[in-house]
Design a protein that fits this description.
The chain is built from ten helices and 14 strands. It has about 325 residues and is of the alpha/beta class. The radius of gyration is 24 Å and the shape is elongated.
């Protein structure tokens, strides 16, 4: 009988221990949750100024984490509840539209977004216009049509493409055969590729011999670069219109035993900078993503306060290679 009573006491004590342990652990925070329509983060303990939303086209590229690293502390310093929502893939323009429409329904104070597809997102922006919710577009300086965007924040991507062309001309002494890995059709691909092609008209020894889409993804870009190398073994330069695509090209070159090929991207992502330092990537156009994110939130804050902002807020860009990469590594 004594043994049975002792067992009952031990079971009761064990049960109480488990209950109190679970209570101490608590439930998952909102910032760690996601949904089928996107990936969510919520920050800030204050939020007295209301909720503002930040909507990247996806989180595949570390570039957008860089914009958030500038936007989030800026929003919290200004007293906003800061929410990040994005589709799971940068090709999901319908998912991005739904996110913006849901934010309008939630009556957030303002929205900063980077559009996947300009035509698709314009309809969602019009709904924000009707609800008197201001919209700022970041990482683009091309105006959306048939809707009202209060400000555009970003670097001149066409000028960025020209800087890449100048760099290739300098490093290759005015003579090179180039392959371009394109992103999804739209503003970013048009500007980054267009600027490069415009500038090489000044350099008759620089020729584009091939181009294929990589859709902003590393694996697709590695396959595209492999295909182009097989068809054009004379390729001397891969220009990826984003760092992830340039890193895919670098992997393809390594697999083919081609350490003679220059690989250059655009964004200045931390993994690209590390790859440059380690000799795995030649260069990138560093575009200060944290500055872009911070300035987008600052513009949204001024608009909400009734202050005047410039319609086009242009940020800087610079080529980063092994000669100066250490100053960009954090």
């Amino acid at each position: 009988m004594k043994n049975k009573g002792l067992k009952k006491i031990m079971v009761l004590l064990l049960t109480l221990f488990v209950v109190f342990s679970l209570a101490a652990c608590g439930s998952p925070k909102q910032s760690e949750t996601g949904s089928s329509s996107g990936q969510a983060q919520t920050g800030g303990s204050g939020g007295n100024a209301g909720e503002i939303a930040f909507v990247p086209p996806g989180m595949v590229s570390p570039f957008y984490a860089g914009t958030i690293s500038g936007a989030k502390p800026t929003a919290e310093k200004l007293g906003y509840k800061f929410t990040v929502l994005s589709p799971e893939r940068e090709s999901d323009f319908a998912g991005q539209v739904k996110i913006v429409e849901d934010l309008v329904t939630r009556k957030v104070k303002g929205i900063a977004l980077c559009a996947i597809n300009a035509d698709a997102i314009a309809a969602a922006v019009r709904k924000a216009n009707e609800a008197n919710i201001p919209v700022v577009v970041f990482n683009s300086l091309t105006e959306l049509q048939n809707c009202e965007v209060k400000a555009y924040v970003g670097y001149d991507q066409r000028a960025g493409g020209r800087k890449v062309a100048d760099y290739v001309n300098k490093v290759k002494n005015g003579k090179a055969k180039v392959a371009i890995i394109e992103g999804l059709p739209g503003y970013h691909t048009t500007e980054r590729k267009g600027g490069f092609e415009e500038q090489i008209k000044s350099y008759p020894g620089i020729q584009v011999v091939a181009f294929q889409p990589g859709d902003w993804e590393r694996e697709k870009s590695m396959n595209a670069a492999t295909n182009m190398l097989q068809a054009h073994p004379e390729i001397e330069v891969f220009y990826g219109l984003s760092d992830e695509m340039a890193l895919g090209a670098a992997q393809a070159c390594k697999a083919a035993g081609r350490n003679d090929i220059l690989t250059i991207g655009i964004d200045g992502n931390p993994n690209a900078l590390e790859a440059i330092k380690n000799g795995e990537l030649t260069a990138t156009l560093y575009v200060y993503p944290d500055v872009i994110g911070a300035k987008a939130i600052e513009a949204l804050d001024k608009i909400l306060k009734g202050e005047t902002v410039d319609k086009m807020i242009v940020t800087d860009s610079i080529i980063a290679d092994k000669s100066n990469v250490d100053q960009f590594l954090k």
